[in-house]
Amino acid sequence: MSNLTAGATEGINLTCGMSGSHEFIFTLVPIVYGCNFVIGIVGNSMVVAVIYCYMKLKTVANVFVFNLAVSDLTFLITLPMWATFTATGYRWPFGGFLCKTSAGLATFNLYTSIFFLTALSIDRYLAIVHPVHSRRFRTVVYARITCVMIWLFAFGLSLPSALTRDVINIKDSKTTVCAILHPSAENAEMLKKLLLAISFLKSLLGFLVPFAIIITCYCLIGRTLLRAKHIQKTSHSREDEVLRMLAAAVLAFFLCWVPHQVFHFLQLLTQLNPGKHCAILEIIDTAMPFTICIAYFNSCVNPMVYGFVGRNFRKNLLRLLRCSPRGGARPHPSISSKMSALSFRASEVLNLTVKNSSTYDVK
User: For the G-protein coupled receptors family 1 profile domain, which residue ranges apply (predicted)?
Assistant: First the structure.
């Protein structure tokens, strides 16, 4: 990989110029980054503090939500640098190390965030659809092992993104940018294949596969809850709150990531068909900062969807804001605990119905 970084700071000439360089981007995007930074830092810090101080890491879902919030915080600390980079007209003043680190953390957060959301979806599927059989697998120990595996796997996937980024001098505009390495004569083919692999994995493992798993889990969860609701003949119960939360989680995930993934896929197509695509690249490079803003907003939405929807989380948040002692009251169960209890009752109802039907058939 050392050959790829050789000569990274040498000046290069751009075939299409600085595409996507518009004044409104340099003004609007840094403002959005700043809002994402403030909202995300406050929201995720509250999630970490509430879970650690009051709700504890004693449930599987709490472990995943805690790690998800830490992942978002790790990424959010880089947003001021990206805001500065955009506000100064794509000029990177922070050096090569922070360029690689920030780019790597952005990709790292993409994978960790989506992997933790997927782990939460699988956990909720097991808790609601298979509450009895999944008990031995849904333990805090297994959850922590899963988190370690997610961190390591995401680090491995994001490492190439960090290594293929560096500070580059643009001769035409005399600008120093933090960008993907420009291929030279000796490493052009190798770098092209590596960049294509990174883009392909980002689309496949960073969105398509996790999204398919999440949708499948939530559809099966919804079907189970609706069946239980139909059997119990209840109109407004706890199932409705759970279904609304699951729908909000899927919708937030979809809306935040789809725009970026669409333009990322178009960018991948331009890489597969090398040549002068200046008009297409102009559209992609102009839209990409805004799709990144929307994708980064997912780090702000996560605390709202997975934390603030829960009534007990809000109670514990008020205790935190009032600086109530940890032992002052019994810790409230997380929303996932309520979901597990609910799913166990729903499963019992379904099982009893099946047994009764079988008994009648025998008679």
Answer: 43-306
